Automatic annotation (TrEMBL):
Name of the protein in its database record: Major facilitator superfamily (MFS) profile domain-containing protein
Upper taxonomic lineage: Eukaryota, Viridiplantae, Streptophyta, Embryophyta, Tracheophyta
UniProt organism field: Ilex paraguariensis
Top-level taxonomic group: Eukaryota
Pfam families reported for this sequence: Sugar_tr
Domain (Major facilitator superfamily (MFS) profile): residue spans on this chain: 27-378
Length: 378
């Protein structure tokens, strides 16, 4: 909860003066690279846990269960293992806890520091995982990865919102989502090729490959400027005005600057922000802020992207076929995000919500009917 993050446009709906300058575009693209680390881990984990050499080394019971159910109709539970679940879920638990700390760091020390911390922690986690000798090292590496993701996911969208001109804010924020989908696609491709390496050590390259997006994010964080909002929050108002003039390509930024200062002052004046969220006047915003991501998660899309190779393998696909199917899924996801970037500011967020929900609904109906038909036949 960093104060003064996103501010409303002035009355009339025209937005503040300012164009999408080359400097802002490049800055936002570099910042959005933080999505690569999240996307890469989403794509890499499911592929690695479907590789037999990885399971044989760290989860021999799961590997043996796989061998025992070859040819059996009950293939779903062959991945049922509390330790394997701990390996996959530890990242998200760590990211959840880290996001609370990250909000304080982002507010007090700036968005760049939070992004840099996220990149460094993610890089450390990738190194630990790639050199893992036992399950403890795997889980420790996952925790580092999770903390890094928690910092990046908290600070990058905020940074993009504060840097982007009002009328391009939607598209530039979705660039973060685009980098996530690119990370997923890249991870799926690497999993497919690394799985072909003889000797069964390709999983180390898959896990260690996370160092590459981490380094991109670290270098980008070091080169990025602070946002005007962050400078205002730290009392550097003159520098904030100059920064705002620079990124907007316009010297006439008084209206937006004054609104930023006012928003920061109002945010600072709030002594108990979490308690204030429960006030009656904030309930509509609080409801939407909770329900939208909650129901988005309930659609199961993140589960599909995370466990795609495992899911394909449990329904009968071979190892290579399941990894290639995950590549195809990641490619469709990436292309769909490009469509969203091109249409979000023209048609609005609500229309994207509706169209996305309808597409998932229409795709789920034939899938469920197919499953019912399969069960009736068997």
């Amino acid at each position: 909860m960093a104060g003064g993050g996103v501010i409303a446009p002035p009355p009339g709906g025209k937005g503040y003066p300012g164009e999408l300058t080359k400097k802002v575009l490049v800055t936002c693209i570099v910042a959005a690279m933080g999505g690569l680390i999240f996307g890469y881990d989403i794509g890499i984990s499911g592929g690695v846990t479907s590789m037999s050499p990885f399971l044989k080394k760290f989860f021999p019971k799961v590997y043996k269960k796989q061998e025992d159910v070859v040819g059996s109709s009950d293939s779903y539970c062959k991945f049922n293992s509390p330790i394997l679940t701990m390996f996959t879920s530890s990242l998200y638990l760590a990211a959840l806890v880290a996001s609370f700390l990250a909000s304080t760091v982002t507010r007090k020390f700036g968005r760049r520091i939070s992004m840099l911390a996220g990149g460094l922690l993610f890089c450390a986690g990738a190194i630990v995982n790639a050199s893992a000798k036992n399950v403890f090292m795997l889980i420790l590496g996952r925790i580092f990865l999770g903390v890094g993701i928690g910092f990046a996911n908290q600070s990058v969208p905020l940074y993009l919102s504060e840097m982007a001109p009002y009328k391009y804010r939607g598209a530039l924020n979705i660039v973060f989502q685009l980098s996530i989908t690119i990370g997923i696609l890249a991870a799926n491709l690497l999993n497919y090729f690394f799985a072909q390496i003889k000797g069964g050590w390709g999983w180390r390259l898959s896990l260690g490959g996370a160092v590459v997006p981490a380094l991109i994010f670290i270098i980008g964080s070091l080169s990025l400027p602070d946002t005007p909002n962050s400078l205002i929050e730290r009392g550097e108002r003159e520098e904030a005005r100059e920064r705002l003039q620079s990124i907007r390509g316009n010297v006439n930024v008084d209206e937006e600057f004054n609104d930023l200062v006012k928003a920061s002052e109002q945010s600072t004046a709030i002594k108990h922000p979490w308690i204030n969220l429960l006030e009656r006047k904030h309930r509509p915003q609080l409801t939407f802020a909770i329900c939208i991501p909650f129901f988005q998660q309930l659609t199961g899309m993140n589960v599909i992207m995370f466990y795609a190779p495992v899911l394909f393998k449990t329904i009968g696909f071979g190892s290579n076929a399941s990894l290639m199917s995950a590549v195809i899924t990641g490619l469709v996801n990436c292309l769909s995000t490009l469509v969203s970037i091109a249409t979000v500011d023209k048609y609005g967020r609500r229309n994207l919500f509706l169209s996305g929900g309808l597409q998932m609904l229409f795709c789920q109906v034939p899938l469920q009917n197919l499953q019912l038909f399969k069960n009736s036949v068997l």
